[in-house]
Design goal:
The chain is mainly β and 509 residues long. It has three helices and 29 strands. The model is unreliable at 167-258, 395-402, 454-465 and 488-509 (pLDDT under 50).
Length: 509
């Protein structure tokens, strides 16, 4: 075995190379396919835990051992000049490599091996280990050992990976703000030809004034004027969601009982299951189907929690998206927060649920965002944008509110879940909630942590109120609080990150 010094290069020991990164701390390994300009050609050239294959390169998780990157140089595209192999701390151990005992990269092919013990790392949380590069018609290996204080995100950015998630859909004439689910009525359907119809409360024909928060009756309905633009200020743009009223058996809909005729002489089936209250709701877009399920009338696409489909009708296609975009995938893995997503496209009816949790609908009109635990997200319109943001003032606190949460902005509908029937608090004075019970809140609110228990003799003897810390809210908005203090996502799974997306609890994973 040949030991490389920093900056040293050697001929690649073969066409098929196995690059192993071993460390005394848990690290994530990734590879970037780089052109002669020193950048990736596209985000598809970033091979990592959420995108494990690229042309000529495969990432394999160690599953308790070191991560491995397999490189076949003869399969690399002609415009790829080098493959850069990196390692970054994954947040489950030390914050920097100064506390990591060993970090060694080994390149093997057949019986030949090159090894590079990486020295001198201090404040860095990410490092470029080695690069496999093209020199004329041959391939060589170079020991690098360059560190980055901002970890995997810094490395990816340095090589041109786009960490900004997908741009919001462009608004074009004829589909102003229209979600692909078809939840917005076509021009002329209401309010005259060529005009966008105002949003309506589901089950009501009364239009909602432009710019006002528009949840269904009894579901997170804020007091009049609380969350709307002040009088005299412009409201939301035209094209706000106009979801149709519900079908029979739903509030505001007709109450006729469906008839089930006998077939081939058999007696008709009778059951209270055929009561209109169990009937399928009609219309397009995201709607409540009872208290623990949503139905999405599909004519385009919708974003939904991976694994939440319980039934569908029609021609629908399902595409797994991980956390949705490379930038969010990296932040989800490092913070533990995110939503393991699937994109559903086509025409038909989609039914979604999450372990019989209570379902609620919220409409965002673009004037404020919604900060929410990713474990409580069920589905949302593709017109909405979401990102992962730090909860201000809650640094270092492990909770349902967490250190990081998902932040939704834009205009569209989102379906969320709670463990039990929640209360919605209007924040017009100092407001506090148990961090495990606070499900979501207005993004414009200021947050912090209030310590309630004094550290005295009682604490030393193990006595506590059980309410040592609460999440504080101030400003103007609302807080949704569930009647449960279960861990993130309840007892039935949170969001996870990286290899465990959608499977675990913890701080959002």
């Amino acid at each position: 075995m040949t030991v490389l010094a920093p900056g040293e290069n050697r001929p690649a020991p073969g066409d098929q190379l196995t690059v192993t990164v071993a460390s005394s701390a848990s690290v994530d390994v990734s590879a970037l396919l780089v052109n002669t300009a020193g950048t990736v050609r596209s985000d598809a050239d970033f091979v990592f835990f959420n995108q494990p294959t690229g042309p000529g390169v495969v990432y394999r998780h160690g599953n308790g051992g070191p991560d491995v990157v397999a490189v076949q140089t003869s399969a690399l595209p002609g415009d790829v000049d080098k493959v850069v192999v990196t390692a970054s701390l994954d947040g489950r151990g030390p914050a920097t490599f100064a506390s990591v005992g060993t970090l060694t990269t080994t390149i093997e092919s057949g019986s030949t091996a090159l090894t590079f013990p990486i020295p001198g790392l201090t404040t860095e949380s990410g490092v470029v280990c080695v690069e496999i590069y093209r020199r004329n018609s041959a391939w060589k290996v170079r020991a690098i050992g360059q560190g980055y204080d901002d970890g995997l995100a810094g490395i990816a950015s340095a090589y041109g990976v786009n960490l900004d998630d997908e741009p919001e859909p462009a608004v074009t004439p004829g589909n102003s703000g229209q979600g692909a689910t078809g939840g917005y009525p076509p021009p002329g359907a209401q309010g005259g030809a060529g005009q966008s119809a105002p949003a309506h409360h589901p089950g009501s024909n009364a239009p909602i004034p432009p710019g006002q928060f528009a949840p269904p009756p009894g579901q997170f309905a804020p007091p009049p004027g609380q969350f709307a633009p002040p009088p005299g200020q412009p409201g939301a743009p035209s094209g706000a969601p106009g979801y149709p009223p519900p079908a029979y058996g739903q509030p505001g809909g007709p109450a006729q009982q469906p008839t089930y005729a006998s077939q081939q002489g058999a007696q008709p089936v009778h059951s209270d299951l055929f009561d209109p209250s169990h009937a399928e709701v009609n219309g397009l877009g995201i709607q409540k189907q009872g208290g623990k399920m949503v139905k999405v009338g599909m004519n385009g696409e919708v974003m939904a929690r991976a694994g939440s489909m319980v039934a569908y009708q029609g021609d629908l296609k399902f595409e797994a998206l991980g956390s949705g975009g490379i930038g969010r995938a990296i932040r989800q893995h490092l913070t533990g927060e995110g939503v393991p997503l699937m994109k559903v496209t086509g025409r038909g009816d989609l039914f979604l649920a999450n372990s019989a949790a209570d379902v609620h609908i919220i409409d965002l009109d673009g004037t404020d965002g919604l900060t929410i635990n990713g474990a409580n997200v069920l589905a949302f319109d593709s017109t909405l944008r979401y990102d992962i943001g730090r909860v201000q003032g809650a640094a270092g606190y492990a909770s349902n509110a967490g250190l990081f949460n998902c932040v939704f902005t834009g205009r569209g509908r989102i379906a969320i879940t709670t463990h039990g029937s929640p209360v919605v608090l209007t924040v017009d004075q100092a407001t506090y909630a148990d961090p495990n019970a606070a499900v979501a809140w207005s993004s414009s609110l200021q947050t912090g942590i209030k310590r309630n228990d004094s550290f005295g003799l009682g604490r030393l003897m193990g006595r506590s109120t059980g309410e040592a810390s609460t999440l504080s809210f101030s400003g103007r908005g609302f807080v949704i609080v569930q009647p449960s203090e279960l861990p993130p996502g309840g007892l039935i799974g949170g969001t996870g990150g990286g290899q465990q997306a959608g499977t675990g609890g913890g701080i959002f994973g």
